[in-house]
Amino acid sequence: MANFKGHALPGSFFLLFGLWWSVKYPLRYLSEKVNKKSHRSQCYQRLEVIEGVAKIIFALIGMLAEQFVPDGPHLYLYSGKERSWVKLMNWQHTTMYLFYGLSGVVDVLTYSPLKVPLGLDRLMLSIAVFAEGFLFYYHVLHRPMLDQHIHSLLLIALFGAAFSILVEAFLRDNIVLELFRTSLTILQGTWFWQIGFVLFPPWGGQAWVEDDHSNIMFVTMCFFWHYAVAILITITNYTLAYCCIQRCKRNNGEIDIGLGIRKQKSDRSSLATLLNGSDEE
Amino acid sequence: MANFKGHALPGSFFLLFGLWWSVKYPLRYLSEKVNKKSHRSQCYQRLEVIEGVAKIIFALIGMLAEQFVPDGPHLYLYSGKERSWVKLMNWQHTTMYLFYGLSGVVDVLTYSPLKVPLGLDRLMLSIAVFAEGFLFYYHVLHRPMLDQHIHSLLLIALFGAAFSILVEAFLRDNIVLELFRTSLTILQGTWFWQIGFVLFPPWGGQAWVEDDHSNIMFVTMCFFWHYAVAILITITNYTLAYCCIQRCKRNNGEIDIGLGIRKQKSDRSSLATLLNGSDEE
Amino acid sequence: MANFKGHALPGSFFLLFGLWWSVKYPLRYLSEKVNKKSHRSQCYQRLEVIEGVAKIIFALIGMLAEQFVPDGPHLYLYSGKERSWVKLMNWQHTTMYLFYGLSGVVDVLTYSPLKVPLGLDRLMLSIAVFAEGFLFYYHVLHRPMLDQHIHSLLLIALFGAAFSILVEAFLRDNIVLELFRTSLTILQGTWFWQIGFVLFPPWGGQAWVEDDHSNIMFVTMCFFWHYAVAILITITNYTLAYCCIQRCKRNNGEIDIGLGIRKQKSDRSSLATLLNGSDEE
Amino acid sequence: MANFKGHALPGSFFLLFGLWWSVKYPLRYLSEKVNKKSHRSQCYQRLEVIEGVAKIIFALIGMLAEQFVPDGPHLYLYSGKERSWVKLMNWQHTTMYLFYGLSGVVDVLTYSPLKVPLGLDRLMLSIAVFAEGFLFYYHVLHRPMLDQHIHSLLLIALFGAAFSILVEAFLRDNIVLELFRTSLTILQGTWFWQIGFVLFPPWGGQAWVEDDHSNIMFVTMCFFWHYAVAILITITNYTLAYCCIQRCKRNNGEIDIGLGIRKQKSDRSSLATLLNGSDEE
């Protein structure tokens, strides 16, 4: 969908995942520092499965939206006597969503009885991001200069994230890589919104001049401002997670001193309590 | 051979290897999880030698086909008074096969008494894929747009596989890398067939318009559909391997309980039985 | 600031950091070889915090200079009825400084009670260098040939350093990577000065001919001479550090024999004495 | 020197090093397999120092040759009233040799009392190869097509070798990387000779047509034939080393059985005997 909504939808998906990760990974990292290896790992497995299902649902929404918007291809690939292609743009976007869907499927399979080897889930996510990157690369050739440039900046975030996730397939649960991925995902989310605002101003207004070199220069700089903001969001959420864990620790500590009896419970403290608090009590 | 057969032949070779690997690696991974370190490793060494020999044979077939088809160079490199080059296309294809042949030779040498260091076999395979990639890169310059684009998409699969195999030289027997290689090999196989169908429609019919931009767009997308299918094939075969191993385990378990005597045999169970069942009994 | 000062300022910052590192890392490496694991690590943490603060200050100076020089944008991003962009060059330079400032902030946070995971400081520095690289890349398109070439050579140093620092996020305290980073930082510093001298000769004189191909050739070669000098500086400072550590060792050894009492003090010898000598005595 | 000799000289240097490495590394690898960790390591350190000195000498020869051939710059960088550059080609070649000289210096320093950290020698060699690569890259722009292509193929070998040596800085004494470097060095050596034969046929004869596309195609393929030969040379020398070590082992074994007394000597057997046989006896 070459309109504002077509950019706002994937932007929201990426933003949601990015913000969620910016909370999840610091919480896990910090709570593991506090009490080493409790049975929280099971809780995280459940989270990964839920994330996988969310990816599948988001991908389905995206694919259906691309196919069945009023000016979509409605699942026709070619038509007419001359067998001309129908709405290839929408089909390409559908393909991008498809790979994220596949990534969700592998996420779910990893924690199924099949025991798909750990690491394949990250590999598949990396492939999905690479696929998005390559499709975008060929997608925007032969477009006006500003359109091409604003999309090609996205490629920096995409290939950066794809490489980083590829490394995660081998260095799993590395907090540095996870926060890097997080910041790049937030960047991708906000940048999709920015593309929407620049190319398809939602409240009308005059469009940006496509061939003005200073627009290009501003957009380049703006991309890095988005990244600075994404980094600040990540740092802020890390700090919030830190405060949260500190408070949990203090509360649990007091309980331990006061009662002794609830020791067993405090073992699965902090993050587990936060994430999974109600399922066994 | 710039015709349908010239693309179907290597396509079949890659497809054969890809499908074989999509069965072999899951079987090995899953059977190793069940019974740790039995003498199956010897059985796998034999398989690697057989693979090496298969590579050599396939490479020889490919080289002979490229040289001795009716319009081939018949081993003449230049001819005439002016020493003009003869059929350089076929010679370039011959060179591609040559490197896969060399990779087969190093595979065989690795398990010969020479004890070529482990890892060199993977390095040589990686070099063969890189060589194919670079030859293709220079091969398709100055061709019509669709021809060039459809071949250059192959480069993504080639360089991806080459890097992945290069890493395998140092991270040997890593199931994630092996399945990645498997999926890219299947992709390469099916894509060679696709190139054949697009550029040289075997049942006649009208050729694709070379300079139509929407053809380019479709072909890009189609490449990623091929990859999605390659991934699904890999997942399916992994699942089949899983079921197969589960059945073997259950059968062996029952025998163990019932007889006790056949314990020794069941040690080399599952994959070894499947692959090598008849050679000692 | 597209003038001599605008290149001399960042050049001096990089040169200062490069020279400081070319002393610090050899001293740390050699003193660790002499007495293994003393409480010097604390002293190095303090140094890292000081470096972080220095980065923040340098970044602030740079940003303020870019904004408030007489021909700067004075914090106006656009102006006039037509909302035309104001001095985007200066804004882009401000953005480059901003990322180094962020890197300083993460450096400080790493050793704050927040316990930001080790490695994120290196990752952030790497991102800052990448950001500088990408901004430069788009910055110099559409400029005269010599201008473009002399800046694009800088990209070799920038992307080299960015990759090397990225690896440091995972291979922390690796002396090989640290000295590589050091040499590339010195190179960047001297090259900024060189750019200033070539494009904006400070003592007037005739400017270089922009389109002369032999100027391009000389500049390419000159860049590598700068690097050779940067390597020689690093080697020289390493040698000085070696001599310094040797003398300290000899002195401490004599004291140990002579007095015995000062043993405790000599434990935190060599580098700690040099860097931190006066803070507890 | 843009003539046959100017390519034959560096070609011979690389070929010499490549052939020497193709003997040295297999010998070391195989002899280490036979008797684990003897005092041979000292012997290899001496060899590395000798290699370093050889690099310095070769680099000096190359630099002097480039400067003082009859049509060389004789150390003049610019001349005349207009300060025009003198023979920048030769100056660029001199710069390439310079970096290999620096690499030799770091090799020697590594085993000096200075104790330059292990790994810096490999890093410096990698930098030398990168420098050669980048200089070549800018060197051949704006040249006739065949000239440019034949040199740019060299870049594949150069950047491949540079990356491989960079990895060696961290994975030292890895036989796979060492043999890869060996094969690429042989390739570089033979390819320099090939460039000489193509661009400056030494026995006169007609020059190759610069703009003939089939010449380009042949040259591409020929480059890979050179690499196939380089691999075969490496395999052959490995096999010879294997036979040599086997014979040594058998001889030493017989001595051990026959005399018992010479046991001590046989400890430093095989390669040490070969390389260093006469220095203590």
From TrEMBL, chains A, B, C, D:
<dbReference type="InterPro" id="IPR006904">
    <property type="entry name" value="DUF716"/>
</dbReference>
<comment type="similarity">
    <text>Belongs to the TMEM45 family.</text>
</comment>
<keyword id="KW-0472">Membrane</keyword>
<dbReference type="GO" id="GO:0016020">
    <property type="term" value="C:membrane"/>
</dbReference>
<dbReference type="InterPro" id="IPR042127">
    <property type="entry name" value="TMEM45"/>
</dbReference>
<feature type="transmembrane region" description="Helical">
    <location>
        <begin position="183"/>
        <end position="204"/>
    </location>
</feature>
<feature type="transmembrane region" description="Helical">
    <location>
        <begin position="12"/>
        <end position="31"/>
    </location>
</feature>
<feature type="transmembrane region" description="Helical">
    <location>
        <begin position="152"/>
        <end position="171"/>
    </location>
</feature>
<keyword id="KW-1133">Transmembrane helix</keyword>
<feature type="transmembrane region" description="Helical">
    <location>
        <begin position="90"/>
        <end position="111"/>
    </location>
</feature>
<feature type="transmembrane region" description="Helical">
    <location>
        <begin position="216"/>
        <end position="240"/>
    </location>
</feature>
<protein>
    <recommendedName>
        <fullName>Transmembrane protein 45B</fullName>
    </recommendedName>
</protein>
<feature type="transmembrane region" description="Helical">
    <location>
        <begin position="123"/>
        <end position="140"/>
    </location>
</feature>
<feature type="transmembrane region" description="Helical">
    <location>
        <begin position="52"/>
        <end position="70"/>
    </location>
</feature>
<keyword id="KW-0812">Transmembrane</keyword>
<dbReference type="Pfam" id="PF04819">
    <property type="entry name" value="DUF716"/>
</dbReference>
